[in-house]
């Protein structure tokens, strides 16, 4: 457990470091990182003006809101996924044995598992998807408001101002999409599914990251971090 808490802290430190652009050694972790906000805000402003000087300007209060959003959105979510996937792997002897066999067969050569190596471990990737499905790290309603004039969804008129949300917990356990054993953690379902079923499963599980223009901006980073971190602990710690 100490390893997981340590790793979770390191991931948080890594994200803060990425925002602040300072060496990791200079950061001490605190559950209250309010004191970092002015620095993070400066960083966000610098980053915006460096990358899009003409199109996008971000000012005072906006950057102070944006800065902690990046840290909160990018850490707790990823760490929750890391912990749940790890828990499902190490508490399930069949899954654990398969992860280990896959790692052994891959004969990884890098000193730290690379993104490309992790993506080439299909069973581990299936564990990540299955872990995020069975224990979604984000289950807030994230409601969206129907715009002025209302909207029509599947032929049904939804009046303007209606708040529409989705029940994530139910979506991810739908037997029509994931099969009759949808309630249990079984990574194999991702490797056995027909193309059609796989597409449906992926479409639903992707909702973990939100949808459309609201979709998580950090999705590629989160998947990279999870693959590398879980590949690494599966190789050296489990
Ligand atoms: C497993 C990890 C993650 C999950 C499950 C997740 C989930 C989500 C969800 C569901 C939303 C959309 C909320 C909505 O509908 O309004 C969101 C938004 C966002 N996420 Fe993530 N996230 C993860 C990791 C990350 C990471 C690593 C970063 C940054 C490095 C990040 C940055 C953001 C940002 C900036 C937004 C707001 C996008 C906007 O302005 O609309 N997330 N995330």
Task: Write a structural description.
- The protein has 238 residues and is mostly helical.
- The chain has a domain at 1-91.
- Helices cover 58% and strands 4% of the residues.
- The chain has eleven helices and four strands, in the order ααααααββββααααα.
- It has helices at 2-20, 37-51, 60-90, 93-106, 115-119, 122-134, 168-171, 175-178, 189-192, 195-205, 219-236; strands at residues 144-145, 151-153, 156-158, 163-164.
- The longest helix is centred in the N-terminal third of the chain and has 31 residues, at 60-90.
- It starts with a helix and ends with a helix.
- Residues 1-8 and 19-29 have low confidence and may be disordered.
- Bound molecules: protoporphyrin IX containing FE.
- Residues 69-70, 73-74, 77-78, 81, 137-138, 142, 208-210, 214, 216-218, 221-222 line the site of protoporphyrin IX containing FE.
The termini sit apart by: 11 Å
Report the radius of gyration as a whole number of Å. Answer: 20 Å
Largest sheet: 2 strands, antiparallel
The average pLDDT score comes to 82
The share of residues in extended strands comes to: under 5%
| Largest sheet, spatial ordering of strands | 1-4
What is bound: which ligands?
A: protoporphyrin IX containing FE
What percentage of residues falls in helices of 4 or more residues?
55-70%
What is the count of helical runs? 11
Shape label: flat
Number of strands: 4
**Order of helix and strand elements from N to C terminus:** HHHHHHEEEEHHHHH
**Poorly predicted regions:** 1-8, 19-29
Describe, in short, the structure shown.
Helix content is 58%, strand content 4%. The chain is mainly α and 238 residues long.
